[in-house]
Amino acid sequence: MARRAAPPNAGPGYYNGTPSRGALTDPNESFFSAFLREEIFAPEKLPGNLSILTGAAVFFRGIAAIRTFGELIIP
Questions:
Q1: Best CA proximity match to 42, nearest among 74, 20, 61
Q2: Is this model's pTM higher than 0.90 or not?
Q3: pLDDT at residue number 55
Q4: DSSP 74
Q5: Rounded Cα distance, 18 and 48, in Å
Q6: CB count, 10 Å around CB of 33?
Q7: pLDDT score recorded for residue 8
Q8: Residue 18 region, left (φ>0) first, then alpha (ψ -120 to 50), else beta?
Q9: Residue among 3, 2, 42, 1 nearest 19 (CA)
């Protein structure tokens, strides 16, 4: 069976792994600000980032509570 060709201007049929930057980005933007915009504050990644932040906050609050009130636990 013959294989059909891709439609014109379809682009590659594989994932190239490079993130596509939006057309409205500043070409002189620093790496750190691009990282914050694309990974931290991106709307599609915000729920996961909030989940990580909540877990870290509960962990460190637990450590602070044990260090503060640890004497009450020991009989």
A1: 20
A2: no
A3: 98
A4: -
A5: 21
A6: 11
A7: 74
A8: beta
A9: 42
Query: pLDDT for 2-16, tens place per residue?
Result: 667 777 777 666 665
Q: Which two tokens stand for residue 37?
A: 């915009």
DSSP code per residue over 1-68: -PPPPPPTT---SS---PPPPPTTS-TT--HHHHHIIIIIS-TTTHHHHHHHHHHHHHHHHHHHHHHH
pLDDT in tens, 33-60: 999 999 999 999 999 999 999 999 999 9
Task: Give the chain's end-to-end CA distance (angstroms, integer).
Answer: 79
Which own/partner pairs from 43-51 qualify as long-range (CB within 8 Å, at least 24 positions apart)? none
Give me the residue label for tokens 């637990």. 62
Whole-angstrom Cα distance, residue 19 to residue 45? 14
| Amino acid, single-letter form, for residue 70 | G
